[in-house]
Amino acid sequence: MAPKKPRRRKKNLDLRLFVAGSSIRSLRTIDSVKQACEKHAPGHYDLTIVDIYVQPEAAIRAHIVAAPTLIRRFPKPLRMFVGEISRASDLDSDLSRLRAVGQL
Fold first, then answer.
1. Global pTM?
2. Tens of pLDDT along 32-78?
3. Alpha helices in 1-104 (DSSP H)
């Protein structure tokens, strides 16, 4: 009997969230994104939070024109979510779909 090949570990979900300071809207969006990640990819995501007031050059490099903006960098294709992300958002649907097809 041939030995089983080890399962190849999938790369973590890679997200970058651009927010404008620590406003209620920013804090609510951060919380919603973290909850969606924990629901669909617990322990298998990298979330970078960028405050555009502190790091405006990062927002310029990423071509951010509004905050909050979430960029899903992996799995491909790249996807952007602009505006406040609520609990029943497009992000939740997107992550659910990725998990269903085995990308998470």
1. 0.83
2. 999 999 999 999 999 999 999 999 999 999 999 999 999 999 999 99
3. 24-40, 56-61, 90-100
Q: Domain coordinates of the chain in residue numbers?
A: 13-100
For domain 13-100, the CATH superfamily is Glutaredoxin (3.40.30.10)
The CA distance from 102 to 10, in Å, is 9
CB atoms within 10 A of CB 74: 15
List all residues 6 or more positions away from 29 whose beta carbon is below 8 Å from its beta carbon: 17, 19, 68, 70, 84, 85
Count Cβ neighbours within 10 Å for each residue of 17-55 and write b for 16 or more, e otherwise: bbbbeeeeebeebbebbeebbeebbeeebeeebbbbeee
